[in-house]
Amino acid sequence: MDLPQIESLGETLSASTEQQRQISVRGTASSLAVRYEQWRMLLLAARGELEALIDFSEDQHFDESPVQLCASVAEQVQVLRAQMEAHVANAVRGELLRNGISMALLGAPNAGKSSLLNRIVGRDAAIVSQEAGTTRDIVEVSVDLGGWLVKIGDMAGLRRAGLVGADIVGAVEQEGIKRAKQRALESDVLVVVQDATTDMDPEVTETAKQCVESGINVVVAVNKIDQFSSTSGAEDAWKARIRSTLGIAESRISFISCREASTAVPLTSKNTDPGNMQSFLTTLMQTFRDMTAALVPDSDPNPSIWQESLGATERQRILLSECLTHLEAFLTAVTPELTESHSAYGIEPDATDDIDIDIVLAAESLRSAADALGKIIGRGDGGDVEEVLGVVFEKFCVGK
């Protein structure tokens, strides 16, 4: 077994949810290590061309000038970089499956956040009271939802300090509100719990907008729909209001009733989904599915390898990011000159002969990038000298 397979085997043994098991099993195949080795060999081939220029340019005649050769290598590196970036993005998505999705419940006091948490986890994990501001600190609960490990945070209700005669927001509650806003901005999924009988609170709306702008997945649960009239058209009005305020899709808006979903309400043939709780959970799981689906680059129509890239571990992702840093250094070393000189940018090839490029620095960047890939599959540093020489002697007529 190669090193990535061994890592995946360890994670398979420690998996606690179905999604964790599936993503770990994907990594036990050898295709990830094969892909890493293919990328490493591409970099070795590119480095071999540059090393040939460094060592043999004075003794041998090459068909391409250094600038033309660097331009050709840069094109290959750019394609490789795009594939690695997609691979890293999928690895980040895979970490959501492996480490759990962070979800926060945000809303005004008495909107039903704690009741919703209790309905989701199936037990009284949070205190439910008609008194505003009952929840002060963040209540964290982990739960398996459809195979996804979800870490739910129930937080203090957001409200501004009232005027004279209104409820007083004390120092402890103010700290709870501050922590709630911070937890919301750090979450992967934000569930905004809105009381259907009251207007949207400005504090809640402002924080939810910040989360949307930050790229956080926002779902809205309009609670207490049991107080709606069947012909009032309130649901359509709420959908229009939420879409215009937060700019989220209608598919991310659910209407629930935590009171009807309580265990005190018996299931009947006419009431198979009390309080629309199952419909809400379906919306949540579709959100999780969208967040953790593999990204497939347009340049690669085969989605199978990208599905397996979800199983890349954090160690592999860090080393891939290190490799990308070195590839950026290579492109920085060669691209500024090429943007004004290479024929692809409108200038004839013979005009590039006088351009000075630091071939040594470019080759060193490729060496460091290949070493980072080698570490992923368990190769040590500096073990590629013979491979580079093999590329040089195979492609160029030198040493004869």
Could you explain how this protein is built, in words?
Keywords: Hydrolase. This is P-loop containing nucleoside triphosphate hydrolase protein. The chain is an alpha/beta fold and 400 residues long. It has helices at 3-14, 18-27, 31-56, 66-99, 113-121, 171-185, 202-213, 234-246, 277-292, 304-308, 314-341, 359-376, 385-395; strands at 101-107, 139-145, 148-154, 189-195, 217-223, 253-255. The chain folds into 2 domains: 3-97 and 296-395, Four Helix Bundle (Hemerythrin (Met), subunit A), CATH 1.20.120.430; 98-292, Rossmann fold, CATH 3.40.50. It is built from 13 helices and 6 strands. A 6-stranded mixed beta sheet has the order 2-3-1-4-5-6, with helices on both faces. The longest helix is centred in the first third of the chain and has 34 residues, at 66-99. The model is unreliable at 263-269, 337-354 and 391-396 (pLDDT under 50).
Write the SSE topology.
Layout: H1 3-14, H2 18-27, H3 31-56, H4 66-99, E1 101-107, H5 113-121, E2 139-145, E3 148-154, H6 171-185, E4 189-195, H7 202-213, E5 217-223, H8 234-246, E6 253-255, H9 277-292, H10 304-308, H11 314-341, H12 359-376, H13 385-395
Helix pairs in contact: 1-2, 2-4, 3-4, 3-12, 3-13, 4-11, 11-12
